[in-house]
Amino acid sequence: MAVEHEYGAEEIQILEGLEAVRRRPGMYIGSTSEKGLHHLVYEIVDNSVDEALAGYCTDIKVFINEDNSITVIDNGRGIPIGIHPKKGIPAVEVVFTILHAGGKFGGGGYKVSGGLHGVGASVVNALSSWLEVEISKDGKLYKQRYEKGKVCYPLKEIGTSVNDGTKITFMPDDTIFETNEFDYDTLRSRLRETAFLTRGVKVTLTDMRPGKEKERSFHYEGGIKEFVEYINRHKNPLYNKVIYCEGTKDDVYVEVALQHNDSYNETTYSFVNNVITPEGGTHMTGFRNAITKTFNDYARSNNFLKEKEDNLQGEDLREGLAAIISIKVGEPQFEGQTKQKLGNSEARGAVDSIVSEQLTYFLEQNPSIAKIIINKAVSAQRARIAARKARDVARKSTLSDSLALPGKLADCSSKNAEECEIYIVEGDSAGGSAKTARNRATQAILPLRGKILNVEKSRIDKILVNEEIKAMITAFGTGIHDNFDITKLRYGKIIIMTDADVDGAHIATLLLTFFYRFMPDLIKEGHVYLAQPPLFKLEKNKKVWYAYSDEELDSILRQVGRDQNNKIQRYKGLGEMDADQLWETTMDPSKRILHQVNIDPETESDVDITFNTLMGDKVEPRREFIEENAQYVKNLDV
Question: Deepest of 86, 100, 192, 534, by most Cβ within 10 A of its Cβ?
């Protein structure tokens, strides 16, 4: 019998200083993936934004340097340099080397602040190979450097300065992060959002990397009103004014901007101290209560609704709504460390009260706009009632109700959702090959006939009678919208498998649009994938190679030689492959290439706008988007 190791006091580890952050980075920034990498930038920028919210900063500059380090410069007051009374070291050193230190924990430093629970600067320092801070203050310039969170030398005066401010440069530690390559578009999206939410502050992003040089500046004097205009710029607003409500109640500062457009989807984003709350919370609840009650009261008092008619529901009134809810609160309480949902009870009452009062006044002063909004809501109400039967069909789809499954579905035999996957396949031909090729125990096949309905241009009653959409809703088992229940999902992976051409890409985009608008949690929780079929088959001397890109084909040809014995087939569609080839290249879990579809909550506003640009009614924005992004497209058939 083995002797068990004794568990004594010496087994208790104490992680000194910032070592805890380096040992468990995911606890502080969520992950060490590309998302966590970019979060480092947000944390430093949030500190500059705090200076702006306090009224001391008007200009924030962010640079992606040639070596892929990041520099953030602001013209705020500069991080304090005086000796900290308890620690006996300069305050700036406290900020960068001690967790939970800063001006965000009482004492009057900041009334409100964003950032990740006030640990931003020290966490960024801990997760960087090196970090340098330069502080311009009272005509003097100071500098300090850290390596892996540790001080290299005491804060020193290195020169003179004209204006106050802070400059921070850091290099993420490549031994911690999965990638150290910053994505310009990801940062651009977040910084644009920051500028919208921080009225009057100019935010500039500059990429200094060779071959990638570019710069964008964002400056919005109109704040969130301009944010709503930006959301609606590719849509058709129903009226030319952005409704704006602002006020303070119970120490909660509330800003709300809204405007309806002629689409059928709601686009509402909520923020607390400039941090997005993807799952909403009490401030969102207060907003929706105010919208529903105020418009119904107005509709009743002005005879838009007859006495016996049902009230307009919230979803009717929010059809085509673009809105931003931004609140500032001194002590935000979030559910979970990633700030997904606000829990402050006072926020609900503050938003409800301010929006109700000011929206009532606006409707009384603008009766023509009120009529437009209510007429749209009444039309949405009629469509909702007409779609009720179709909704009931979707709601009744359950794991045990096998009789309700669509006839074209070739289901798998396993009932364990975690191991099951469903292929959404384009066309009967490819569907036939996929049904033959599949592993019948765990792989289901649902062939689609042609292109599904573009849900971006359709109302719910039209969508839910579409045969292809009904088949997917029934097969997945989750229901949609308010009836969506992820626990009823019948397949752990939903795999879109289309031809590698323009039509295939269009079908995939239509499917992703449907998922995003009606079942967004399928994407957010990582259940949606894109299959990547090969582009080429190369045969030589009875040997076969598959290539998934032009570059891979060139690489294979360099290995096997370029001569007349090469037989190269360019696949135009999945239907050209027999079942064995389809299994070997695209469906075999041990060999296939799958691309998981993800949405970063911090850049979701750009995702929403991209779907509307690509799938909406306006042609010009779509043309501009294609022209701007054509240089990044690969393997596009003409």
Answer: 534
